[in-house]
TrEMBL record:
It holds the Pfam family adh_short. It comes from the Eukaryota. This is Dehydrogenase reductase SDR family member 12-like protein. InterPro entries: NAD(P)-bd_dom_sf, SDR_fam, SDR_member_12.
Length: 274
């Protein structure tokens, strides 16, 4: 089954994740879809100083949005902020320094943010961490899981009250098509058993993000939750696609999904500052 999943994913990638696929899909792009103002709306973007996160921040800044850049490296974050302000002319860009692999600090950040700011319209979980070997943080958690899964869970969970008070609230999580080769597993969240394969651990984290999104969406229908493979980041007319490859047996049961969320809640609470 692993060979099948990998082969099916490869074929899907050839048809959907390549430049050729972009050129084909771009024929249906509607430029007017991007002609919108987000003035007065606030956006939190993790990993906003480079790559997709920076491009997202730049695009939103140009459309008048207030941006909270959540970044690990202060120098890189400030440099990116200066560039965004200069190019967009928008000064409502704020930098917050946070290492998402430090679980207690994620808690502290979310709580302090709620106290300081009155509104948050959109949370964009963009930052990602792919480890080449198993490493643990100072709290004993495997870093990839701590950054990609637990931090995302805590940010969403703790910021929901602020989002629910804000107009048209949304949570967007940047997952990866790599999650298609993984079925949710709750028995080895810390990757303590077996050989550590950073790419597969990352893919498992991304599957966890998809399950999290689905479960949060059910529990909070007044917030629009989305999870996506970044793909063509300037595509305005995205389409819903399956979260599973055909015949790949990656579906988890409702009981498994609920168990995962329960484990995440208990784990998150165990690191809650007192």
């Amino acid at each position: 089954m692993s060979l099948y999943r990998n082969s099916a994913w490869f074929l899907k990638g050839l048809t959907e994740f390549t430049k050729g696929a972009f050129l084909s899909a771009s024929k249906n792009f509607v430029e007017k879809d991007l002609e919108t103002s987000v003035a007065g709306r606030s956006f939190m973007i993790t990993g906003a100083n480079s790559g997709i996160g920076k491009a997202t921040a730049m695009a939103i800044a140009k459309k008048g949005g207030t941006i909270h850049m959540v970044c690990r490296n202060k120098d890189k974050a400030e440099e990116a902020r200066a560039e965004i302000v200069k190019e967009s002319g928008n000064k409502e860009i704020y930098v917050h320094i946070l290492d998402l692999s430090e679980t207690k600090k994620v808690w502290e950040f979310a709580e302090s943010f709620k106290k300081k700011y009155k509104t948050l319209n959109v949370l964009i979980n963009n930052a990602g961490c792919l480890m080449t070997k198993r490493e643990v943080n100072g709290e004993g958690l495997e870093k990839s899981f701590a950054s990609n899964s637990l931090a995302v869970y805590i940010l969403i969970k703790r910021l929901i009250p602020l989002l629910e008070k804000s107009p048209d609230p949304r949570v967007i999580t940047v997952s990866s098509g790599g999650m298609l080769v993984q079925k949710l597993r709750t028995g080895n969240l810390q990757s303590q058993r077996g050989r550590y394969d950073g790419t597969m651990v990352f893919a498992q984290n991304k599957r966890q993000q998809v399950v999290m999104t689905e479960q949060f969406a059910k529990a909070h229908p007044n917030i629009h939750f989305s999870v996506m493979h970044p793909g063509w980041v300037d595509t305005p007319n995205r389409q819903m696609v399956s979260a599973h490859l055909p015949l790949a047996w990656t579906h988890s049961s409702q009981l498994e999904d609920q168990k995962f969320m329960s484990v995440m809640e208990d784990l998150a609470k165990s690191f809650q500052p007192h």
